[in-house]
Specification:
The complex is a heterodimer.
Chain A lengths: L36 H6 L10 H15 L1 H9 L11 H6 L6 H16 L1 H5 L1 H4 L6 H10 L8 H5 L6 H14 L5 H13 L7 H19 L14 E4 L3 H4 L3 H15 L3 E2 L17 H18 L3 E4 L3 H15 L8 H9 L8 E2 H10 L15 E3 L3 H6 L8 H13 L30 H7 L1 H14 L3 E4 L2 H10 L10 E3 H8 L7
Parallel strand pairs in A: 1-2, 1-3, 3-4, 5-6, 6-7
Helix pairs in contact in A: 2-3, 2-10, 5-10, 14-24, 15-16, 18-20, 20-24
Chain B lengths: L2 H30 L15 H14 L1 H6 L1 H21 L9 H30 L1 H6 L2 H22 L5 H12 L10 H16 L7 H7 L1 H4 L12 H5 L3
Helix pairs in contact in B: 1-9, 4-5, 5-7, 7-9
The chains are: A mainly alpha, B mainly alpha.
Bound molecules: iron/sulfur cluster (2 copies).
The site of one iron/sulfur cluster (SF4) has 16 residues of chain A, from helix 5, helix 9 and helix 10.
Amino acid sequence: MAVAEFEVPKVQPYPLVDIPKIKPDATVHLKSFPASEKIQEGIGFPGPLVDNWHKVAIDKMGDLLNRYRSLAVYMDACVHCGACTDKCHYFLGTADPKNMPVARQELMRKVYRRYFTFAGKYFPKLVGAADLTEDVLNDWYSYFYQCSECRRCSVYCPYGIDTAEVTMAAREIMDAVGMGQKYTNEILGKLHRIGNNLGLPGPALLDTLEGLEEDILEDTGVAVKMPIDVKGAEVLLITPSADFFSEPHVESLIGYAKVFHEAGISWTLSSLASEAGNFGLFIGSYENMRRAAMRIREAALELGVKRIVVGECGHAWRVAYSFWNTLTGVGHGGEDEFTRALQAQLDPRYPAPQHICEMTLDLINQGVLKFDKEKNDHRTITFHDSCNVARGSRMGNMPGGQFVIPREIIKAVANNFHDMADETIGEGTFCCGGGGGILTDDLMEVRVKGAMPRMQALQCVVDEHQVNFMAAICAICKAQFSKVLPYYKFDMSMIGGVHQLVSTSIRLSEKK
Amino acid sequence: MSSLTFIYAFLMYAATVIMVTGVAFKIYTYSRTPAPLKIPTTPAPTTQSGVVFRIVREVVLFESLFKANKWIWIFGWLFHFGLLLVLLRHLRYFTEPVWSWVVLIQPFGMYAGFAMVAGLGGLWARRILVDRIRYISTPSDHLMLLLLILIGISGLTMKFVAHTDIVAVKQFILGLMYFDIQPMPADPILLIHLGLVSFLMIIFPISKLLHAPGLFFSPSRNQVDNSRDKRHLAPWAAELEK
Ligand code: SF4
Ligand code: SF4
């Protein structure tokens, strides 16, 4: 595919001194491919643009305002203070003012004011209200697909206004009128039809896993199993399907398998629920998100597992940690009939769902796993906090556990670790630039430019500490960085998983 | 009753009713709207008391704003806390006898008026000078600042330049409170001051001033991070289970 020419932003020395001067409409032309009618129908939406789209859109907006308190409050509460204006990596990378979170929200808010508020109905100019025209809708399509729903802006807003919530609502409205995005909606359709984002049927999975078992045996001389559809296994592992096929993702899958092997925990994958990623989140569709998550509940009941563990993926973990309990009852504390069966089955000693990093660190702390740390000595490692782990979920039982646990693992399995600058990690972490439905070639320019702030922080630890490996726990981060790193003159194999590091240095024993 | 007294008494009553019912209606709408998913932003407290503490920090210290931008924080905080002290100082017009702590803060309240106007000036300067913030400003944002500054300046003028007959003002206000209307002093600056304040109260429920109640209803700030231990089901979402 021909890639359009564009300028890769300059990486300035950290800390970021220059917030760009705004360049209106710098990226208005960057639009992802629209979804075909067939794709739209696969997830329950019409396509292409319906005739009475105006009415449908306003009705849908009214519906969402009644359904989501977040939206209702966020439409009213913004004071245009500007605190969020320089917090979005897409603004920092593109200088397009509509990539400032407040301006992105304003695309919807001006329509909200016009149709739902007194001031906007009678004094539209004064308060910045505007009719929903086709131009406005086109702007929505540009800029609500230039938001990775990373929620960085929400951390800094005095009212916690979460642009991701607004983006999701806008996308849901666009889907409702038949204006969907090809990338996200096609993948979601595959998930509904086949069970994973890559559209891999069961037999293909089985094949791949057998191949991987052989590879491990050849590499280590130890027979490590990669079981699938095993009834009565203790753990059901749900992981992003990229882990089965893509590099470097698969290295982490091997890492998980070795951990299970060494700890002697029986586990299984499921061909019914062979995907952790849930793209329903990206388009804000509760129904689609729920439908996608249902597979996990069904697989857990069918296989009779006691624990559910989730592999390395940011969006997947957010949906799993924050929403599975709500959507499908995978979790504790449900009092309805719907969740009782599952709770009776799950082992109450473990959180449900549990993150693979929580499990691994527990095993390390119990002394079950042993490592030859020097095997990672060729690496000097930094850690990239993925947005949806950092800002949308948690690990362990204390606030901020999601920052501590992966780093503890890295330090337990490798000798050389350096964090990037404080304001660019933890809750202030910069998005990889590819999250939330942006990870598509048609948006390559957006992705490259949006990655700039992360590249800048990375450059700094590369220069100061000779870092040569960036560990991440998200399938999208891994895929995005593999593509984007070369644009910034880094080696694409710099990116990898935390369990890839575990895999390198774990001491395997025969038994078990 | 003079027509001036009649107009101002009516205006103050109307403004109070509009503000109270308007905001109450908004609060009712927010509280009635379900929050179907748990979406607290990091660092999210795991207990209800943690949430209360978090909101208190946001209200008192503007914690998130502090993390975001020190200039906006300084000006915003100066303005809001200046305003708070000024409002508390104004309690002396509403109480008889005046509560002793209100007497105590009188001197602070006076200087807080300057802090308030300075904070507003700083915010306005940013709105004009910083290109990003200029871009996101609507005419109403500028007008709101103008309105608040004029209220501040007219108030300060009555205190420091052209003294108004505060005994008469107090009688008028107490009269309003007890539905025993007293004459309104015809001091032009006072008329401007009270007129603008009434206007501000009237637009409160239809303007961005809704950020005040909004702060307490923002799910990313007011939710407990306990989604694995407690199922969180909104009514419309529970319908899907049937
Ligand atoms: S959610 Fe992330 S990508 Fe979207 S506007 Fe906020 S900072 Fe930008
Ligand atoms: S920080 Fe919040 S209130 Fe301020 S402009 Fe951004 S969204 Fe609006």
